[in-house]
Amino acid sequence: MSGLTHVSSAFQSTQAAGRAALMPYFTLGFPNPQASLEIIEAVAHSGADLIELGIPFSDPLADGPTIQHSTQVALHQGITVAGCLELTAELRSRGVAMPLILMGYVNPILAFGIERFVAEAADAGADGFIVPDLPLEEAKGMQAACAEHQRALIFMLAPTSTPERMTAVIEQSAGFLYLVSLIGVTGARSDLPSGLEAFVQRVRDQSSIPLAVGFGVSTPAQARAVGSFSDGVIIGSALINAVEGAEDLPQAAARFVGDLRTALESSRSEDGR
Amino acid sequence: MLGPRSSLPSKFGIYGGQYVPETLMPALAELEGAYLKLRMDADFQAELERLLSTYVGRPTPLSHARRLTAKFSGAQIYLKREDLAHSGAHKINNTLGQALMARHMGKRRIVAETGAGQHGVAAATACALLDLKCVVYMGTVDIARQAPNVMRMRLLGAEVRPVEAGSQTLKDAINEAIRDWVTNVQDTHYLLGSALGPHPYPTIVRELQSVIGREAREQILSQAGKLPDQCIACVGGGSNSIGLFHAFREDEQVALVGVEAGGEGIDSGKHAARFADPTVGRPGVLHGTYSYVLQDSDGQIAGTHSIAAGLDYPAIGPEHALLRDLGRATYTWVTDEQALEAFGLLSRMEGIIPALESAHAVAEAVRRAPGMKQDQILLVNLSGRGDKDLDTVASELGWDEELRAQEATETTS
Fold first, then answer.
1. B162 exposed, middle or buried (CB, 10 Å; 0-12, 13-18, 19+)?
2. A162, B151, B228, B407: which has the highest count of C-beta atoms within 10 A?
3. pTM of this prediction exceeds 0.90
């Protein structure tokens, strides 16, 4: 199956179930490669609909302290781009079936070679890619490689995006759109940004592509709120916080993701969109 | 594709571009729009020129380094004295221009990064003058080695935020400044200090710094009656060098020479010379621009070393990568030790204490002058003054030990 179809059908089934898709993010190689596998496996079995897997980079400038820390630890553990692809393949061989989206900054991808990266990631079982420092203007090479290997290249829109940019990005998007909930970097926040629902609605007015919201979504209650007006909820830093320091990391991850899923299920009955 | 775009090219050949999160793309477009408008705006240009002459002290002189020249009986060495610009370095040319632009854009808060502290001081200076709030990010390693500049920034009313992440130097300060900008983009202008980062910064910074080369070209023609044979400048991000080179780009007989930080030598791996070793210095993306970047085989950004904090940075401005590809400029490197020697030499022989960054350019001139004829000219950009480096130099020369020993003797006697 093409990665694009895999991603689209995940959103179709959650939409059919009347709820938003749950897309946890986790950093590959954190706190070490083996442990990250087990944590992600637990996430997969606790209610995630898609999973975003982070490829560590030394200078992650769109990330706040939590994800920065996790990538530093992973790099100290010797994680590489090739290692991330091996972990992805291992997740597949362990039976993790949902769409896997690789999130990585552009320089390690360039160093690996764009075409080679997309080809090998596709072989490993990745369905799509998020490259936060690759806006539409610079994405031609990556778009071509993704088209060739039928993978989804996920673009982001932010509250600052102008109407013209929105139109252009929507036109080039496939799979889903990643809506950056706030003006800022990743990281857990105590409150959702005001105007988020209106922002999601502005994009929805222009597009029928699934809209997933990330950055700053931290708690089951926030996930429920965001899930009531979006098609997907992305949660990264809060998951890392939930496992960090826990005695049993996979168990802590499973519990947190399970709570998020329950919250999203409950938003269905209230909202029934 | 994205509506009416401006006429400024976003790339230098294959280099440059805008590799930044979506959140910042509209801010870059806004900045470009403001720049395009203001560079044609007579009032804005008049205001900038007034400040450059009555506040910065431009034009800065071009000094003939007679004793240094005589010592080698070779090429005539001329120094473009950016060390005499207000706040002690060429950085003020850029900060005043950008701070004025920020004010025109209605952005009252400035964030900046600094390595040596020269850009931070220049940013804080411009913000004090133009009544803007100023936050400067600085790595803790740099804070320790550039203490006087930290003090200056605070006196000028800026808030200096220490950066503990990564190598705790310029690269990490830029990461944090960009994160701050992403978070506060609606009321904040990122005052980037060098000719790097995403488009339009490399172009804006070059244009604001090109006053160096314009003046120097006129001055050398008037003093020596001809163009220099070579223009030499140190290259960290590359703003003083591109500012000097730009005015000479069409003068094909003038060689343009950029000097990178060779640190403890290229073989040691402890350096910041992006062009010196193709196994670690390869094209890649750092801080929003595609250029030569020191990195490992996996694309992780490499650690760097230089005695000069302002050169201690893993990427080089994208226009330099193009100038090198075109063969229009050549790039070489000078070690910490050679820079220190040149630092002492210029101080003793010309009465000018150069910044350690600028001492790299002086060292290259000293290396070239002896092999050249006496009617040839080397034009060196003395990009900043060295007061900020006294602690570093004292400890390298062992003077701080001597001083402590002396104090100890005095106390005991």
1. middle
2. B228
3. yes
